[in-house]
Amino acid sequence: MKIPILKMEDILIVTIQSELTDREIEELSHDILDMINKVGAEGLIIDITALKVVDSFMARSLNAIANAATLLGSETVVVGIQPAVALTLVELGLRISWGVKTALNLEKGLEILRKKKDK
Amino acid sequence: MDEQTIEVRRDIDVILARNVGRKMANEIGFGELDQTRITTAISELARNIVIHANRGKVVIREIQKGDRRGIEVVCTDDGPGIEDIEAALRDGYTTAGGLGIGMTGAKRLMDEFHVESVVGVGTTVIVKKWLR
User: Fold this and answer.
1) How many distinct structural domains can be found in chain A?
2) Which segments of chain B have a pLDDT < 70?
3) Tens digit of each residue's pLDDT, chain A (119 residues)
4) Are B102 and A97 inside 8 Å of each other by CB?
5) Residue A92: what pLDDT?
6) Between A and B, how many residue pairs show a Cβ–Cβ distance under 8 A?
7) So what's the pLDDT on residue A22?
8) How far apart are the C-alpha atoms of B118 and B61, rounded to whole Å?
9) How many domains in chain B?
10) Do A87 and B33 touch (CB under 8 A)?
11) Where's the STAS domain (chain A) (predicted)?
């Protein structure tokens, strides 16, 4: 299943709507970076509101996407982490690796990227 | 009492195992946060099977001890086994290039954790969580 990547001005928005296998996450990572490269996006929002589980593989993948996007000149914000998911990630021991910017929802994520651009 | 077995070989089976786990945790009466903890622990342990072994299985069952109810997850695989279990339970230890928090993470998310491993034969990890 291909996950659509929407383009809004110079920001890409990816909404993950169902549980993804490891392979699908890897494909998505590649598609996103490809698209950033193609359209010269300066911002990327990954919306994971629908995810009821974020395990260490998913967390690591989100980190990797964000880091690689930075190298391509695009800032990443992950939005929509559910409260139970957030607490579980902390308990899982993710303090050692979570370096991605986050926002509560899509609106706030866009705000962060726009502010950054206005500066 | 209810029990379900999920054969684990490929990454898609990880999703299947955690969906079965969440459904069963919900039926036993766990709240959303505990359901998320249990499902995430299952995900970490099932993925370990996919990464380290050719095949394995996850058995999820309802358990009871006196008047306490809970959930037990037994993950068995035919992988290479763990040479140094103590090291494997240390934060950041990894042999497969992951974050090295799979097994320790699962341990932290559950109430009870037990691992048995024989080099060259396989590994069994048992985790439990009790309703409060």
Assistant:
1) 1
2) 1, 91-100
3) 689 999 999 999 999 999 999 999 999 999 999 999 999 999 999 999 999 999 989 998 999 999 999 999 999 999 999 999 999 998 987 654 577 899 999 999 999 999 877 76
4) no
5) 87
6) 74
7) 92
8) 24
9) 1
10) yes
11) 1-94
CATH (domain of A31) = 3.30.750.24
Q: What is the pTM of this model?
A: 0.92
Q: Which distant-in-sequence residues (6+ apart) come within 8 Å of B29 by Cβ?
A: B69, B131
Give the domain CATH number at B103. 3.30.565.10
Parent domain of B39 = 3-130
User: What is the rounded CA–CA span in Å between residue B48 and residue A69?
Assistant: 28
pLDDT at B84: 80
Facing A84 at nearest CB: one of B11, B36, B91: B36
d(C-alpha A45, C-alpha B65), whole Å: 47
Question: What average pLDDT does chain B have?
Answer: 90
The DSSP secondary structure of chain A, one letter per residue, reads: -PPPEEEETTEEEEE--S---HHHHHHHHHHHHHHHHHHT-SEEEEE-TT-S---HHHHHHHHHHHHHHHHTT-EEEEE---HHHHHHHHHHTGGGT---EEESSHHHHHHHHHHHHH-
Q: Which burial class, exposed, middle or buried, applies to A4 when counting CB atoms under 10 A from its CB (0-12, 13-18, 19+)?
A: exposed
Q: Do B39 and A56 touch (CB under 8 A)?
A: no
Residue showing tokens 């974050």: B99
Q: Is A84 on the interface with B (CB under 8 A)?
A: yes
DSSP B38-90: HHHHHHHHHHHHHHH-S-EEEEEEEEEETTEEEEEEEEEE-S---S-HHHHTS
Give strand pairing partners of A12: A7, A44
